[in-house]
Amino acid sequence: xxxxxxxxxxxxxxxxxxxxxxxxxxxxxxCGPTVYDYAHIGNLRAYIAEDLLRRMLLYFGYxxxxxxxxxxxxxxTSDADTGEDKMTVGARREGKSVxxxxxxxxxxxxxxxxxxxxxxxxxxxxxxxxxxxxxELIQRLIDRGYAYHAGGNVYFSVDNFPDYGxxxxxxxxxxxxxxxxxxxxxxxxxxxxxxxxxxxxxxxxEMKWDSxxxxxxxxxxxxxxxxxxxxxxxxxxxxxxxxxxIPVHHTNELAQSEAAFGHKWVxxxxxxxxxxAKDGKMSKSSGGFLxxxxxxxxxxxxxxxxxxxxxxxxxxxxxxxxxxxxAAQSALSNLKSLYTGWxxxxxxxxxxxxxxxxxxxxxxxxxxxxxxxxxxTAIASDxxxxxxxxxxxxxxxxxxxxxxxxxxLLLRFDKVxxxxxxxxxxxxxxxxLRKLIEEREEARKRRDFATAxxxxxxxxxxxxxxxxxxxxxxxxxxxxx
Length: 481
Ligand code: AMP
Ligand code: ZN
Known about the structure:
By secondary structure, this protein is α/β, with parallel strands linked by helices. It is built from 14 helices and 16 strands. A five-stranded parallel beta sheet has the order 5-4-3-10-11, sandwiched between helices. A four-stranded antiparallel beta sheet has the order 6-7-8-9, with helices on one face. Strands 13-12-14 form a three-stranded mixed beta sheet, covered by helices on one side. It is globular, with a radius of gyration of 25 Å. The relative contact order is 0.12. The protein binds adenosine monophosphate (AMP) and zinc ion. Zinc ion (ZN) is lined by residues 31, 224, 249, 253. The site of adenosine monophosphate has 18 residues, from α1 and β10.
């Protein structure tokens, strides 16, 4: 700690010094996945950025209590309460029960997170396991005059909460043309949102609970307020999500929380810009989206994708192309080769240089100290990871530093970057894999590309990534465990 951190706050749209509610401790809430399908790489970009935020706070010595919900009930195909229930649609598509579907995709999500080296939240909370907490909050909102019954459902009344549009800059008297054509006639104001649905809306709903408002299920937004307040208390330091959450989900969360608690809820709103495909937004509901396992099938590792994401600031849109991912893969592989080179030189050099990472007191001055300073300043400045990555490369190429210093600096930087540097080691390629690479070379020479491609796939499965370059075929090897 002691380092001045600034963060851009969506509420107020300014970068401001970060001050936690309690010195040295941070309560961090991130909206988790809706588990009706695999996460796409756009969703994963958001979780990588949030992981960088958490690692940066840990790096500067904060204790971070990180809470994430899992949306396994209540999210309709439109964020604004219209359309079908996403879980029901997913279950129908796959011939599973909604419960099976939820557990399956929750596991798949956390598996993706693990392979991307995303730290596990301190608490993961499923919406379906927090129904009593949601009911209590809804009751509180009714008692305080912020919610009403209509057509069997319970709605939050935005007109009773004058600050409703403060984060998104929405004006309640302005209807977004075309955006809300399918407005629920029960709503007094089109921005009102459902807190509790009863059976009347979806007679075939599998997930339902008894409540004072009738048998039914919660709306999407209330789960985050219930879960955040249960595990973090009624005030939260930082709340994260993708930018799509600003106008509806987070605006609604903010309104219902401040209405229920009677005071400010979140101090810093952290929103991650979108990963975009060439032809526009990448989304789950449009169907055509890329998953992490699809990238792996194409010969990329999760670390390649993580590195790709590090290259853009979290508040800039990032365009996905295979070429750009390939360039990230090469850069990462170059960094790995440099590092393993330093390791080897270092082992051959002085024994005194073998500690694992660079502590603050290791260098009072000199180039290593100034790289450390430059890196720390970059990440403390609204989490400027691309600038920090620039420092990494400058350091890696600097002749004035010893291999030992470079190795230890990179290990230290990796506490934030999360590329898994500590596991990088020079790899001996097993004989059978070397033979496969040679066979593939032969096949390419005979222009038998089908065989060459099949061999490339076999090699990829074994952890060998092949790259054909003008200087010949290159490979990198990370044994599969
Ligand atoms: P969902 O599972 O749909 O609730 O989304 C999970 C997270 O991914 C949320 O924080 C979204 O805001 C975020 N998200 C959705 N699409 C993208 C995208 N294309 N790029 C970056 N983040 C996204
Ligand atoms: Zn949420």
